């Protein structure tokens, strides 16, 4: 066969490939969703509300789905339902339809009490699941079982062992068993690998869904479309045009009762090593050969493996004044509540471009955004360089938006310039459209068997390899956090590091979300 005809045949087959080409097993039989840690805060505030919203939108059909809560707390079905009820809809202004939806949804929930390392509780759980599957006329082994571990990682190994021994479905008959695990996935490379080994001995990688809720955010999910479906970004997205990239997470409150938990991890483990690093992968990765989950995750791993070791002079740590006043925090804690870290990617596209990851608590604002700053325009005939550089900003939260900062002529008779923006604010452009919560998307992806927005084992390992040496130096007291005032921008040294990295702050321009 000649090369020309072969080429045409391949291109035709590629064009008709569906956007979501996922190698799912046959989806039939009942769906059992088991929330382990059902009485905890994560389950009440995130997991059950996400399941309720999927139910209301018709993604969880009452004739197919049943939800089981499992925890050590000895409570009845109705007690669990009453604990959850207030998190599903607001009591104020709830319509009769809302109340009816809540009531019907809660009837799908059954509670089982048991330990996380004991055979008896999980045998009882399996019996309840099996009885429900029989009641829905599912053939044995054809049902689907989704286990959501809303639990601390310390109990993952024992819980996974119990599921494997006593609660598995027989996937060879068309059903499946999948588990969802929450971060933190370890505290460093060794502990993450140990956890991965313990779970990996029990489940195939295709059954494990490591959830990072940032990958479910609307604007994060838009990154691949923006980069690879718009022609004008393609020639600009490289070291020839981009001066630096910032990925920022800011909170205007402190640990607020989570001090003891937070002090074990710190801001790098809590935010930067997972959420912000995942965003970096999507900003920096090459175009995958398709939208299949493995092809996308392959490209993310390549980015992580290209990141150079972190240098101490490209890190600023901070701890807000008053952090150690929390009685659950040690008086001489070295845990950072703020960090700015510069990562450098050693490849053809990004050589020389600093990626600035910045996260902090008790700062002067709350936001998460990606800020791509372009190089100066050569030959500045308008003498407008001091007004600021072009920037492409993706506002992840709050007030989801994306806007391009650019220089324009100021209206009037004079030839003067001013900074303005091309703005796509979601609240204005998509009025009446509800943006789903991240957990809704990710749970639905798990049911569909789509692992695109979940962290693969080699991806997790590569992420820990970047930060473990720095984290060990912090843990050993070799790198100290600088004090900063609550309500400030963080340590002044962090702004100096940004300037050293080549970031030029725009003075006199503030982006204001448009009003409806």
TrEMBL record:
Catalysis performed (reactions): D-glucose 6-phosphate + NADP(+) = 6-phospho-D-glucono-1,5-lactone + NADPH + H(+)
InterPro entries named in the record: G6P_DH, G6P_DH_AS, G6P_DH_C, G6P_DH_NAD-bd, NAD(P)-bd_dom_sf
Any GO CC annotation of this UniProt entry: cytosol
SUPFAM superfamilies recorded: Glyceraldehyde-3-phosphate dehydrogenase-like, C-terminal domain, NAD(P)-binding Rossmann-fold domains
Entry keyword Cytoplasm: yes
Residues annotated as domain Glucose-6-phosphate dehydrogenase NAD-binding: 34-222
Pathway: Carbohydrate degradation; pentose phosphate pathway; D-ribulose 5-phosphate from D-glucose 6-phosphate (oxidative stage): step 1/3
Predominant place of localization: cytoplasm
EC number: 1.1.1.49
Any GO BP annotation: pentose-phosphate shunt, oxidative branch
Keywords noted in UniProt: Carbohydrate metabolism, Cytoplasm, Glucose metabolism, NADP, Oxidoreductase
Location in the cell: Cytoplasm
Listed GO MF terms: glucose-6-phosphate dehydrogenase activity; NADP binding
Job of this protein: Catalyzes the rate-limiting step of the oxidative pentose-phosphate pathway, which represents a route for the dissimilation of carbohydrates besides glycolysis.
Family statement drawn from the similarity comment of this UniProt entry: Belongs to the glucose-6-phosphate dehydrogenase family.
Name of the featured protein: Glucose-6-phosphate 1-dehydrogenase
Organism: Malus domestica
